[in-house]
Amino acid sequence: MTIYNTVLVGCGFRGEMHARAILANPQRFTLTAVCDVDAERLTQFAAAFDIANTYTDADAMLAAERPDVLCFATMPDMRLPLVELGVNHGVKAIAFEKPMALSLHEAKHIVELCDRAGVLGIVCHQWRHSPLWQKTYEIVRSGEIGEVHTIHASSRPSILRVGTHLIDYMFWLNGGHRGAWVLGQAHGADAYHEDHPCPDHVSGLIEFTNGVRGVLDCGTLAPHLMDDDNFWEDCGITVYGTHGYVRTVLGTGLQAMTRTSGPTLLTEPPDPAPQEPAHLLTLANWLDDPEQVHPSHVEVSYAGFEVLIGMALSSLQRRKVELPIEPVPLLPVLPRLKDALLHAGTL
């Protein structure tokens, strides 16, 4: 069984999660070096994880270490430059955080770079690996709730923080069917001052290619499925079928009424266990066998990101947006939407 040499860029909280995931799979990965522009944070991180090789420059690290896998957990504006570095240094795979980019043009470029170089790229949509979400999938795909007609997803965190997770799992729970068109509306520009710059709230409709209707609510106006202080776990998906439904909320668990449960409400508790180890293990399996394609590969992640940007474009241009979006807008949609939101309500 091949063990893949891996390097990590980014020593913040999410970097810690990725480091633990790499080290949790010693039979598949070795973490040979870490990199961060903050030298003090880098030193503390390396000591905590007993990593000898440290760098403050990702290019220098890739040149010296020549890894199989580049893993990075940085701010979203660094996605494309780091993918370019990984491709240029001949890595076999790149695993990075969501969102995959801040613009559709950058995201498309990432997909094309990986495709041309034969690099396996994956985005960290890890929830699907938990037993809780696997149970959700089993209920839907078994037909226990009948024929699916509507999927409603919501989160109090924004589209760039959690929205890409939700769209990825909507695709998955809908049998892999992607969006045919979207209609969206946006509100508020305060979140543009954060490190994941986007509207405060985005709501929209998704018509999937199989006719299932999706509803998305992300941000400050989303329904509260949990108490106010449980902001980050207040993310959920409800799948409605002709004979029942299943709802899974990150922080409260699963509820379902199915063909066989009758009036009895089925429940499962939340599963707080980190799923990054399983997410990366699935990458090792894909590296071993090209037929074992990772479910969060960059092409499907691009399709999910496109849904969100399509909603933003719909809000900006006040129209239904057909998918895929072609040609890809050269000017980023989210900054243009910010300008419109800042002038909202003026005549």
Automatic annotation (TrEMBL):
Keywords: Oxidoreductase. Residues 134-246 form the GFO/IDH/MocA-like oxidoreductase domain. The keyword Nuclease does not apply. Pfam families: GFO_IDH_MocA (PF01408), GFO_IDH_MocA_C3 (PF22725). Gene3D superfamilies: Dihydrodipicolinate Reductase, domain 2, NAD(P)-binding Rossmann-like Domain. GO terms for molecular function: nucleotide binding; oxidoreductase activity. Residues 5-121 form the Gfo/Idh/MocA-like oxidoreductase N-terminal domain. This is Uncharacterized protein. It comes from Entotheonella factor.
